[in-house]
Amino acid sequence: MTTGSGTVLVVEDEESIADVLAIALRYHRFEVMIAGTVREGLALAERTRPDVALLDVMLPDGDGRALGRELRERRPDLALVFLTARDSPAEIVGALGFGDDYITKPFNIDEVVARITAVLRRTRPADVLPQRPPLRYGDLELDETTYSVRRAGRTVELTPTEYALLRFLVRNGGRIVPKEQLLRHVWQYEHTPPESTVVETYISYLRRKLDALGPPVITTRRGVGYGLA
């Protein structure tokens, strides 16, 4: 049985779905809190400080994506996973712009547990030591204690997944990292989804944030992968 490690805030207004999610997550030894509205979700997150929020997009008193943005502003380290029946590319890309994963309904409960476990694994890496020195590459500096990033001395605000992706590129220096390797090490995918564009999407997010502070730093080897200049 998978052993969970962390607290999950589930914000879902359909009680039957919320119950199934809670039972499955608790079976896998996660602590679970349930909210049915945006207001309840904000209050619970403030009181209990969960490690990951599993958010339905359509809630009775608001939009789950807006809730996710509010939670991320309050807690930059909080992982966000969206759960929704909306599956258009625009919806998915929009949510992944600041979230860490996106699961469509109807869903497989084992997949939900696996996705949450993977998100926590990459946003709270177990191999980080409290006194570990910063990672540096060129004018980039990654603080492994606070998970903060600076470029040319200026702070770069990254989501947990963006940080995990940049850290893996930095650890590989100037080498080109194949897309399949990024999916395995950053997103914990055992089998590469052939249609997945998640790497390209997150590379574009990193470029937008990093290039605003200096020359382009991420290079592309078409048909192969990505690296640092």
TrEMBL record:
Residues 132-229 form the OmpR/PhoB-type domain. The keyword Disulfide bond does not apply. Residues 7-120 form the Response regulatory domain. The modification 4-aspartylphosphate is found at residue 56. The keyword Manganese does not apply. Keywords: DNA-binding, Phosphoprotein. Pfam families: Response_reg (PF00072), Trans_reg_C (PF00486). Residues 132-229 bind DNA. It comes from the Bacteria. GO terms for biological process: regulation of DNA-templated transcription. SUPFAM superfamilies: CheY-like (SSF52172). SMART domains: REC, Trans_reg_C. One of its GO terms (molecular function) is phosphorelay response regulator activity. GO terms for cellular component: cytosol; protein-DNA complex. This is Response regulator transcription factor. It comes from Streptomyces muensis.
